[in-house]
Every structure is written in C-alpha cells, then in structure tokens.
Amino acid sequence: MKSVVGIPQAAAWVALLVGLGEAAFFGVASLVLHRYTHQNPQFIWMSAISMAALFVIPAMILIFLMRNRTEEARIQAAITVFGFLGAFALLLAFPKLHIMASVALALGIAVQAGRSARAHAAVFSRLVRVTVWPMVGVVCVLAISLNATRAIAERREHASLPAAQPDAPNVILLILDTVRASRLSLYGNTRATTPRIDSIAGHGVHFTQALSPAPWTLPSHASMFTGRLPHEMSASWRTPFGADHPTLAEVLRARGYATGGFVANYFYVSRESGLHRGFTHYEDFATTPAAILSASGLARRLVAWTWLRERTGYLRNPGAKDAPRANRDLLRWLSKRGDRPFFAFVNYFDAHAAYDPPAPFDTRFRSTELPRNPFLLNEKPISTQNAQPELDAYDGALAFLDAQIGDLIDSLDARGKLRNTLLILTSDHGEEFGEHGLLDHGKSLYMPVLHVPLVIVFPGRVPAGNAIRVPVSTRDVPATVLQLLGEKSRQSLPGRSLARYWTAGEEAFPEERITSQVRHNPGREPWLPTSAGDMASLLNARHHFIRNGDGRAELYDVIADPLEQRNLAGDAAWREYVARYGASLDSLVPTRSGR
Question: Where in the chain is the domain with CATH 3.40.720.10?
C-alpha cells in the first residue's frame, strides 16, 4: 500500500480546494446574485496559485519540525495548519463575521479535519491523489477558457464593425481619477504640479468652472459616458452601471470606430462596473506576478493590512496599474488597430490615495514633518493643517501623473496620431484635505470634490488658448464629442455641446444651473454628510446651494468665499435665495423617499 501523502502534497491539495472554493463563492455572488464583488475575474484561477504560494513557508517549517514524526502525525499537522489557513481564507468572504469568530471557527474546523485525516490516513491520501490533478486541470481550464473567450469575442466584435466615414476624427478621453482642479498649476496652484497639462491646454480650450455630476467614480464616469445625471442611472455604491442607456462608446462603435478602454481604477471602473459597454477592447486588471500572488482572500487581507503597509513603505495595492503601464497598453493597442478611427478611453489612478509616486516626486512638495495618514482615516473631523502631509504627497502624485501625460502626448505626436484627433482631459471628481473636516471623496458635495479640470484640444476645430469661465458640467462631454465629430441633427446622447461657448461666446447663453448628486452611503461614520441621506447641489456663476439628506440647506458665495466656510443659509437676508435655489434644485433633481 502506498504511504500517506507528504506535507507538500497536502498543502497543494488544500490550496487548490480553497482557491476553487473562493472562485465558486464569488462566481455565484457576481453571476447569480449580481453583487458588486470588486474582484478580478482572473481570480477564478489565480486564487489557487496565490494560496499555494502562501503555503510555501508554513510547509517548509512543518517539514523541518515534523521530520522525525510518523507519517500519520505529519499529515495531521499539515491538514490542521493548512486547513486552518484555508478555512480562515474562506470565512473572510463574510465581512460581517467578526475576525475573532472567523479565527475560532476556522481553528475548530482545522482541528477536526486534522484528527480525521490522521485516523483515516490511507483513505485521505487516496482522496488527495485522486482529486489533486483534476483540480489542477480545472484551474488550467478556467484560466484558458476565460482568456480565450475574451480574445475570441474581441476579434469577432472588431471584425463585425461597420465601415467608418473617411477621415473620421479620432477621440481620446483621458480621465485623471481623483484630480482636484485647484491643485493644477493651470487652475492657480502656486506649485508647479502640471507644466505638461498647462502646455496641452494652451493648444485648446480649458474650462475654469467645470463640475462633476457626482463626487465619486462610478456615477461620474457613467454621466460622462451617457450624458445622463446620476439619478437617471442605476450606478451606485453597491449597484453597477446598468444597460438602460446607450454610451458614447456604443454610439461610436456603431459608426465603425475601434473602441478601447484602459483602466487603472479596479474598484469602480472595471468590467464589473458596467462601464465597459461599447468597448471592443477593455483592459482593467493587470495579470502580473504581484497580482497573482495576492489574488486569494487571505493574501488580499494580508497585503491590505494597514500596519504592514505603513511599515514596509509599500502603500499601493499589489498589481496596481500605474500611468506608464496604462500608456504602454494604449500605445500597443493603437499599433494593432489598423486604419480605423479610434475612441480611446484611459483612466489613470496615480493621484488616488495612498498618493505613493516614485522618487523624486514622493518628496518634491513636502512642507511639514507631521506624520502621514496615507489611508485617509477619517473617523473624526480633521484640520487642514493635519491633512497637509497628504496634500503634499497628493501634489507629488499629480506631478508624476502630469509627466506621464506629457510622455503619452509626445509618443502620440511622434506617431502622427494627434493631427486628426479630439483630445479631452478631465477628472471624475476631486479630493478633500481637511476642508469641513473631511478627507478623501464621496462624503460631501463641497467644491473640492466637484470642481475638476476640463481641457479640450482639437487642431483646426477648437481655438487655442481659450479659457471659458462659466460653470459647466462634465455630463456634457458626450454631446460635445458628437458635435465636434460632425453630428448636426438632434444628439443621439443627451446633453448640450460645450462648443457653443467658443463658437457663440459665453455671453450668448443664459446662466447655467449645474447640478451634482450623491446617494446615501450606509455603514459610514454618522457625522459624515452622506450618512444623513441622499444629497444634491446646484451651482450658478456665484452661489453653491447644497441640499443635505436630513433636509438641512447650505448656501455659499463661491466668489467671495471659495473655501465655503460661511454658510449663508442661516441668515435671514438670504432666506429668499435659499427658497429659490431649493425649488430650482427640486425641479432638476427629484428627492428620493427614504435613504
């Protein structure tokens, strides 16, 4: 009779079992229950490899410690140790289960499994030998089928594209995730954070008062893709962007455009978000060694451990995609797309927390010795002074991103890709650094999270060196693109083209009323504005009116008080304005009942 399996074989078997178990769990959550999992689909095969890698060191220790013990004792120890780690990894998929409860439950399962494996060592060993290679086969099949299916679907979609109009212009949409307008030197920052973007803006038009429809990623991107306001779409904290409304990528694909998306924000711009609709090619998660090794639930929890990340100095998530990688992906795709006009969308994540650019950008703007708070812990209000270390790091990250944007433009220019190309550069939302006690974004509707850069360059069709100073919304990006591409009849996507401001002049149009919205975000600190319920705001040339979820109104004069420190809503002299703006906002953004 064959001897019982050794510690390495037991470790591999448990790793495969747990990896496939995690894949099944998240597959059901995503495909059957339609829940937002924030998982890389490649996880279905990478998890098992990640778990096996995690088991290497414990396996080596066990081999040394158990070298003089019986085979039965070794297998009991192996199943107990790896069973505990595997069970704990699976229990991490249930965030409402307390960590200590998970530890206790995993330990109980592991101890019983170890005892059973020892008592029936021969049967257990036979089970391992019979099932381990089929599980390896399943992992391989999952990896091959997922990637082959995507590749085949992309080739078919590209082959089925209709003919495009001769000399149709290209479109490039660069979205700088989490970039607040006031931190660009183009928008008044005394620090030279964005010299390349400043230069790019000199070749076209930039809008000094562009606002995002939402203070966070998913609804903002969805608005820029559809021309719809957030309340018209399903995109929310736990709900992906639905298929109810056509997107700019779908419209352009129907006109024969090759469409490619290149995404660095894995949380809310991945395929799972629904924003990939209309793109024949869409690159989100990068399949790198770091991404594979950190794929399992246990590895993800380990590398996300704040204490460990702060002490190692490695603040970014393993497998994160930086701007150089996104640029290379885009340029590689452009070199293979043929002669078709293209629509390329790039989402950059380098200015997002934890603001960890490479040297020398990491210390370029350091101005204080106060300790950093790189994960933006905001359990209680924080002052702008205590937020200064993060603002310094943010400016450094923005300067790094600016340099990479410049490198991309240089590469495109050298390849002749800019002569007949509409280039739009903007952001999905800004960031707060202690204003109103807040860090991060998605927590309020104050100007630091709504005011974003917006630059439009199109040689020969957009005048160079213009600054448009009226408030506008980035929801009008798709309508602007379609008009500049020659659509003269009624827009196939809602919104109004921003080209009207440089063709007829700012004074030719009545004052705009720009709205922004954010839905109630449950489970956050109760003092945060979004914890009170759905919020909406209205901005005109001078005033910013905010309707909070608890019904409380705020009114600011953004000309005299750009930091929004004096709430005018409580002054009797402004009561009429509050009522007027409230009624106007109600007509534009309906109030949802409840939270």
Answer: 166-286+321-509
Contact assessment for residue 373 and residue 380, using Cβ atoms and an 8 Å cutoff: no
Angle between helices 43-65 and 7-27 (to 10 degrees): 150
What pairs with residue 547 in β-bridges?
536, 553
**CB within 8 A of 205, min separation 6: which ones?**
455, 456, 457, 462, 463, 466, 467, 468, 501, 502
Please report the pLDDT score of residue 353 as a whole number: 95
Rounded Cα distance between 554 and 568, Å, is 7
Residue 234 and residue 241 in contact, taking contact as beta carbons nearer than 8 Å? yes
DSSP letters, 557-569, are: ETTT-TT--S-GG
Q: What pLDDT shows up at residue 592?
A: 64
Return mean pLDDT, the chain.
Answer: 93
- DSSP-derived pairing of the beta strands 342-348 and 543-547: unpaired
Task: Extract the tokens encoding 184.
Answer: 């660009």
CB atoms within 10 A of CB 144: 11
The answer to whether residues 171 and 252 touch, using CB atoms and an 8 Å cutoff, is: yes
Strand partners, 211: 451, 473
Phi, psi angles (nearest 5°) of residue 173: -115, 110
Q: How many CA atoms lie within 13 A of 267 on its CB side?
A: 13
Cα separation of 354 and 510, whole Å? 41
CA–CA gap between residue 281 and residue 262 (Å, rounded)? 8
Beta-bridged to residue 517, according to DSSP, are 536
Q: What is the DSSP letter of 117?
A: H
**Structure tokens that stand for 81 in this block:** 């140790």
Low-confidence ranges of the chain (pLDDT < 50): 1, 593-595
The conformational region for residue 83 under phi > 0 = left, psi -120 to 50 = alpha, else beta, is alpha
Distance in angstroms (rounded) separating the CA atoms of residues 203 and 208: 16
In sequence order, which residues have a C-beta less than 8 Å from that of residue 95 and are 6 or more positions away?
none
Domain over 166-286+321-509 is classified CATH 3.40.50.170: no
Q: Specify whether the CB–CB gap between 233 and 245 falls below 8 A.
A: yes
